[in-house]
Amino acid sequence: VTVAAATDTDAAGIAGALTAAEGGSDVDVVDLPDEDGLEHDYTVLEPVTSDVVVVEGRSATDALSLSRTMRSLESDVMALGPWTVTGASNVMIAEEEVGFVAGAVAALSTTSGTVGFPGSRQVATSEAARAGFEAGVAAVDPDVVVEAAYSTPGGFQEMTLTDAGAAADRLLASGVDVLYVNDPSATARAAEAAERTAADTGIDRRIIGSRVDWVVEDDIGPMLSTGLPSTVLIAQVVRDHGVLVSHAFQARAEGELDPGTVVLGIEAGAVRLSPAALDSGQLRAIEGLQTQIAAGSLTVPRAPSGPLIRPVLPIAEDRLELVW
After folding, report:
1. What is the pLDDT of residue 222?
2. How many CA atoms lie less than 13 Å away from 267 in the CB half-sphere?
């Protein structure tokens, strides 16, 4: 098996999950050349002769590069992540269910009655998470108000602003007391903003984070070791790519993994919650909603219905026309 991922951490995670799923497969990790850490060159996979290639991309550009490279590969290709790779067996997380869990946590945790969703880029996966967030909030308390903003609206890839920090600042300034940060890379910045706003106003501001994990267990240790203050962090919603890898190889062994897309969520254990500051009653309420989703009695929408707030963008005035 050959592994190629956007970051060394993800590559190591995939390799570890493969070893667990396959009972000691021969795993070779390929380093991907990149441009500014965003666009990766997957043509380095063309000489590979492994039975299986497991790839992970971080952007639509990565997915296009992978789709082009697919034409030169004779191996079976499994693609993990939010972007569809043409010709590959794609295994993805149900982003709307990730957002739903976060929304339920937010509604159970707010004291102001207003919660926020700051996003980095307004793309399909982020919008699915926003739709789920709205639905999770409404399932707990339909009177709680959801405010949402993107740092880079419209999904413009050419913008240099790539995290949800500006949107988080904007929502905190509007009086939101609980934020769900769907972009894992923006969690630390949002936590800092929440602490700063709380110090300035004397009103608590807290966040719900998100992360990608490769181990099928609910371990709060790694989450808190990121250095986020326990007074700010309520919980993190986990996208468990270890479950994706395990599912993909089991399906392949049974001859059921074909080119196309499989989406896994709460029912498969691919979406779960690592709580940090939730009481037993709140956890029971969330578990009840998760049980309904897993049973199919509660369907989570993928299209958001709420409005967006324009964030304050720290970019030059002559570039605003491009965005707005």
Report:
1. 42
2. 12
Which residue would you say has higher pLDDT here, 220 or 85?
85
Listing from the earlier edge strand, what are the strands of the sheet with 89-93? Answer: 28-29, 2-4, 52-56, 76-80, 89-93, 260-264
Chain centroid to CA 290 = 18
pLDDT tens digits for 109-127? 999 999 999 988 788 889 9
| Cα 64 to Cα 29, 42, 104, 234, 287, distances in angstroms | 21, 10, 35, 36, 38
Q: Tell me, what DSSP letter sits at residue 310?
A: P
- For the CA atoms of 235, 239, 243, 248, the dihedral, rounded to the nearest 10 degrees, stands at 170
Could you give the maximum distance between any two Cα atoms of the chain, in Å? 60
- Most confident segment among 44-53, 100-109, 168-177, 233-242: 100-109
DSSP 319: G
3-class SS at 40?
strand
Q: Tell me how far apart the alpha carbons of residues 37 and 161 are, in angstroms, rounded to a whole number.
A: 14
Q: Where are the alpha helices (DSSP H) in the chain?
A: 8-22, 60-70, 95-109, 124-140, 165-173, 187-201, 220-224, 241-253, 280-295, 320-323
Beta bridge pairs of residue 238: 211, 272
Residue 264 sits at φ, ψ, to 5 deg, of -115, 145
Phi, psi of 301 (to 5 degrees): -70, 155
Confidence of residue 322 (pLDDT cuts 50, 70, 90): very low
Residues 6+ apart with CB under 8 A from 314: 161, 166
Q: Is pLDDT of 299 > 70?
A: yes
